[in-house]
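Note on ligand handling. Small-molecule inputs were canonicalized before submission; formal charges were left as drawn, and no protonation-state enumeration was performed. Where a ligand contained multiple stereocentres, the stereochemistry in the source SMILES was retained. For nicotinamide-adenine-dinucleotide, this procedure yielded the string shown in the input block below.
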Amino acid sequence: MGVFASTDGQESAGHEQIVFCQDKQTGLKAIIGIYSTALGPALGGTRFYPYATEADALHDVLELSRGMAYKNALAGLDLGGGKAVIWGDPEQVKSEALLRAYGRFVESLAGRYYTACDVGTYVADMDIIARETRYVTGRSVEHGGAGDSSILTAWGVFQGMRAAAEHVWGSPTLAGRRVGVAGLGKVGKYLVGHLIDDGASVVATDVNERALDWARQTYPQVDLVADAGALISSDIDVYAPCALGGALNDETVPALRAKIVTGAANNQLAHPGIDKVLADRGVLYTPDYVVNAGGVIQVADEIEGFNFERAKLRATRIFDTTRQILRLADAEGVPPAAAADRLAERRMAEVGRLRTIHLA
Ligand SMILES: NC(=O)c1ccc[n+]([C@@H]2O[C@H](COP(=O)([O-])OP(=O)(O)OC[C@H]3O[C@@H](n4cnc5c(N)ncnc54)[C@H](O)[C@@H]3O)[C@@H](O)[C@H]2O)c1
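Structure output:
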């Protein structure tokens, strides 16, 4: 795999810095990937995962750090894109010493990279890492942290959905529309609340009986269906994937009856060509990394000293960004995912260039 040039596709081209970190005593093996610091320090979480091989871990950190650069750019943050992976099974090897060893490597980058939670790492881990480095966010409320990021993630998804509704139906509201929510987890639950408040009718599904019970108790007006297959083939106007990645694939897209897809799940497109299939079927897809940026907006705000109202205002702007992307997609005749990438690249180039203006 080429790190300095793309030998196996796009993902490994163009990273600024890739740092391999090892501490034999604790068993720490970590890779920190910095894709870009054009807009500011790179921000992205630490994934703690038992990758099959070192190459898999490297592949993941390269892809994820690149994704964060685009996400942070379109979230309007003065932050670049980075991510880290710790290679190992967190159940087996996670310890105070390992996390603190990792924190010292983060500190050694002197603020070029800020870490946060991701799969396999939690707020309590960030508090431990913070004993060795200043460059960590996503901390516990007792340590000035922002708490549950799914609140603003759901708010941002709702804003993106409003912008899509305006684009398709002329008015930025879901009132009178039927929205299918797949996944009533941390984000899906808040999203259902926003939709009901806006006057939408909701149909939902989850694999977890407790999540379904929550819906029965809290929103008895929500219709529940057996699975995501039943949800997407039902008579819905909007599909909101809020569970796992790959929700839009060669099986689900042909069955989809919705006109809009807007949801919280990461990596909704099972493969790059599927957004073209969506567009050909007349389905408007709002890129996942744009509409689910509320969470990163929240943890980024923590770096300044968390202020919920300020962070919410920033997450509300996901409406404007989504609207801009959809208009650009129309103007340039490309799917929204391509328009989003262009807009992110434009901001990184235009704002990033300003750092060449010398300050005395
Ligand atoms: N929490 C955040 O701030 C945040 C930020 C950005 C992106 N995301 C993404 O949004 C998605 C949801 O995040 P979350 O924090 O709500 O996670 P979660 O784990 O709390 O909720 C996911 C829910 O989906 C359900 N589910 C799993 N498989 C399903 C299936 N096949 N059909 C229907 N339901 C299924 C689970 O039972 C669970 O209730 C994830 O993809 C996550 O990566 C979350």
